[in-house]
Amino acid sequence: AQKITQTQPGMFVQEKEAVTLDCTYDTSDQSYGLFWYKQPSSGEMIFLIYQGSYDEQNATEGRYSLNFQKARKSANLVISASQLGDSAMYFCAMREGRISNFGNEKLTFGTGTRLTIIP
Amino acid sequence: EAQVTQNPRYLITVTGKKLTVTCSQNMNHEYMSWYRQDPGLGLRQIYYSMNVEVTDKGDVPEGYKVSRKEKRNFPLILESPSPNQTSLYFCASSVRTAGHPYEQYFGPGTRLTVT
To answer: Does A89 contact chain B (CB < 8 Å)?
Structure first.
């Protein structure tokens, strides 16, 4: 089974509108972290936002917020007031298990959503 | 400036010709990792290293080698590249601080084509 599922291969959104990118995850760990990365056409991976499994409040970073619904195992990214520069590929990722000195810090990625902002 | 650097950024090579992609970070991070990105598959981990001289396989290690002789460097070695290793490669590093949110810092990527 997929550990990270992003069901929207592509989205088109009008500039200045809010957009929600969907992400569902699957894990049996109680401790885990959820990440969103942005990949513009230039190819680099840009960290956007992080949510820990024990965090009670939804994470926010500027125009980005993470709508964390633990019972549904969903971690949707919300971008408010979209801009042309938001056009990019967006990846949801998960790190399972507690951070420790002994474990692999592997991120498991979804297949991504290509977001296009229309002027 | 805190960063992860990779070289080369672009490489076209032929089947069987050994190559090395270098990765270096200036943040004194203990943990480093290599991923490959393929269309429709997201990023998948190739190898990782928890510290100097400590490396282990990720999900797709076949055809790759790594070494970690110094904390800052984590080169990826393809002893005999094949066309199915054509991909976009990312090196990443992170600090290991238990109980603290963290991010993995990604390098700019290396686009490799094997003909």
So the answer is: no
Q: Tell me: the pLDDT tens digits for A30-61?
A: 888 999 999 999 999 999 999 989 888 999 99
Our CA dihedral for A42, B35, B52, A99, rounded to 10 degrees, sits at 100
Q: Can you tell me the distance from the alpha carbon of B62 to that of B71, in angstroms, rounded to the nearest whole number?
A: 24
* φ and ψ of B59, to 5 deg: -85, -25
Contacts of B50 (CB under 8 A, 6+ apart): A101, A102, A104, B30, B31, B56, B96
Does an H or E element contain A60, and which? strand A60-61
Element (H, E) at B75: none
Cα-based distances in Å from A48 to B77, B92, B105: 30, 15, 11
Closest CA to A28 of A118, A113, A94: A94
A-chain residues within 8 Å CB-CB of B96?
99-101, 105
CB-CB under 8 Å, A100 with B98: yes
Rounded CA separation B107/A88 (Å) = 18
- The full 3-state SS of A82-103, as one line of letters, equals CCHHHCEEEEEEEEECCCCCCC
CA angle centred on B36, ends A45 and B110, rounded to 5°:
65
For B85, the 3-state DSSP assignment is helix
Distance from CA of A99 to the nearest CA of B (A): 5
Query: What are the chain A neighbours of B45 within 8 Å (beta carbons)?
Result: 104, 106-107
**What is the per-residue pLDDT across B55-113, written as a single tens digit (0 to 9) for each?**
999 999 999 999 999 999 999 999 999 999 999 999 999 876 554 556 788 999 999 99
